[in-house]
Amino acid sequence: MNYQDRRRIRREVERQVKRAGLRQQQKQYDMAEYQSVVTRFEAAKDRMSQAHLAMLQEDDPDKKLAFAQLTEQYADEAEAIWQAWEAKKVKESRTTVSIWLFAATVGLSLMFPFLAPGFILAFLIYLGLAYGRKRKVD
Which of 4, 15, 88, 105 has its CA 20 to 30 A from that of 123? Predict the structure, then answer.
């Protein structure tokens, strides 16, 4: 093994270590983001629960109505927090799947470089899978 081989191996190892570090950082970021969403969701649920308990303990009908509206508002807030998180995750996964489907389409078209039907077939498969994925999510 000469100097150039060792240098090439060292560069490759450094690239792999850097990629692993970036993946770890992304996982930590995703986990922190998820934790913040869960914390906000739990806080909204706690506020809703407290308003509901106050409503049950209240005797005045006007105050009961106010607490009921507050409870409904907090419930809507909690649901909106969770739905926003799920929508973001669905959008990210849909983008990833779309990239992979496009790569598969290009790969299939390269397998049949001189056949126009091969490219058309690959494109139809891509559209069918992308449309099916979109319909399943909606």
Answer: 88
